[in-house]
Amino acid sequence: MRAKVVYFALAAVLVVYFVLVGSRGVMLIQQGTPVTVAFGAAVLVLPFIGVWFLYQTTKFARDADRLARELDAEGGLPVDELVRTPGGRIDRDSADEVFARRKEETEAAPGDWRAWFRLAVAYHDARDTPRARKAMQRAIALHDNKPVRADAAR
Prior knowledge:
There is one protein chain. The chain is mostly helical. It folds into two domains: 73 residues; 76 residues, Serine Threonine Protein Phosphatase 5, Tetratricopeptide repeat (Alpha Horseshoe), CATH 1.25.40. 75% of the residues lie in helices and 0% in strands. The protein has five helices and no strands. Helix 1 packs antiparallel against helix 2, helix 2 packs across helix 5 and helix 4 packs antiparallel against helix 5. The longest helix is centred in the middle third of the chain and has 41 residues. The protein starts with a helix and ends in an 11-residue tail after the last helix. Keywords: Membrane, TPR repeat, Transmembrane, Transmembrane helix. It comes from Streptomyces gamaensis. InterPro entries: TPR-like_helical_dom_sf, TPR_rpt. This is Tetratricopeptide repeat protein.
């Protein structure tokens, strides 16, 4: 719950920032000189890129959460069996052991979104965020019967 509050607070701050940057871009364009129009147009590109990125990130998080809820309803969420350090961090060897099992499950059932979801969690626990994201994207695509990229999380 705390993560959602932080996410929405940061998203709100970003939206305010995009509005401010956009208004500055419009003000530059209104000056009417070739240089200010060029700078204004360049400045206006930034909020559009930011909004697109924020939309994609939010969509990804919502889709992953939807899959987590469905997997939880089926009783298929991965159980937290990881060993932790006294400070609460996940032990690397423990994460690697769980990852190896999840990878085998995924290789045995490459078309199962549930296996890819659990693999994404294992990648995350092993602190491999880029591969965790790719595995989750593949799980979402498989769940939604969308085309799957060949290089996703391999």
